C-alpha cells in the first residue's frame, strides 16, 4: 500500500499563513551600512607588526589594497623599516611609527601620524602583545601589571583612540584585536597572559555595543599555537619547567592538541584578520574568532 502526501506546502494548506504580513527585513537606517566605502583608500594601523603575526597581517592588508602604518617598539625599528619596504614594493603607501601601546599619549601620536601620512583611518588592528610563562604563586606585582598594561590597556588605548578618530571622520570603521584561545580556556603557567586575553575578549564585546551606533564594528581573533618568536619563548620556558628540550614542547602540543596536526603559521591568522577588516564581515561585531586548527571548539 502506498501513502502519498498531497503536492502542496504547509503555507498553501493553511491560508492564514499566507495572509500574515511579511516582517520588514529593513533595519533602522543607522544600522544598515557598517562598511567603510571601498571606493575610498583604506588605511590600517597594525600594532606590533615588525614581526610575527602582525607582520603577516600588515602584508596581507597591503595585498588587499590598504595603505598600512607599521608600529612596534624602538628595539624593533630596523625590522619595522624592512616591513615598510616590503609593503612599498607591493605598490602601497607605508611608514613605521615607534610607539609603546601601553602608553596612551604614544598611541594618540601613532593615530595622528597615520592620518597625516596616509589619510583617514579606516582600520585599527591592535595586535601587539606580550607573553610570560610563570606559575601563579610566583608572579610579582610588576609581572601582573606589565601584562595588563600591554595586553589590556594597550588594546583599550588602540580601540578608544582609533574610535574617536573614526567618529570624527563620520564614516564608520573596523576595530580588531589579538585575543587567543586562552581567552576561552587558560593554559597552566600562562595564567596572567590568559586572563589578559579574556579581558581583550570582554572589551571587544563591550566596545562592539557602544560603537555600533557609529558604524564601527569590533571583533577579535584568537590564534592557537603559532610558530613565532612568542612561542619560541613559551616553548623554552615551559621546557625549563618540565625538562623538555627546546622545540619539544611546541611539537608535543601540536601533535597532541591540534586536530589538523600541524603548528599554525602567521598566514593562517592573517587571512581571517583580512576577513574581519573587510566588507564581508560588515554584519559581525563583538565576536572573537578562533583560528587554532581545532584545539578548542566554541
Ligand atoms: N604566537 C601565538 O601562538 C599566539 C597565539 C595566540 C595569540 N597571540 C597573540 O598574537 C599577537 C601577536 O603575537 P606574535 O606571536 O606575532 O608575537 P611576537 O612576539 O612575535 O610579536 C609581537 C610584536 O609586538 C611587539 N610589541 C610588544 N609589546 C609592544 C608594545 N608595548 N608596544 C608596541 N609593540 C609591542 C613586539 O615587539 C613584537 O614585534 C599577540 O597579541 C599575541 O598575544 C599569539
From TrEMBL:
Keyword Nucleotidyltransferase tagged: no
Recorded family membership: Belongs to the short-chain dehydrogenases/reductases (SDR) family.
Keywords for this protein: NADP
Gene3D superfamilies: NAD(P)-binding Rossmann-like Domain
GO biological process: fatty acid biosynthetic process
Protein name, per record: Acetoin dehydrogenase-like protein
MF GO annotations: oxidoreductase activity, acting on the CH-OH group of donors, NAD or NADP as acceptor; quinone binding
Entry-linked InterPro entries: NAD(P)-bd_dom_sf (IPR036291), Sc_DH/Rdtase_CS (IPR020904), SDR_fam (IPR002347)
SUPFAM superfamilies given in the database record: NAD(P)-binding Rossmann-fold domains
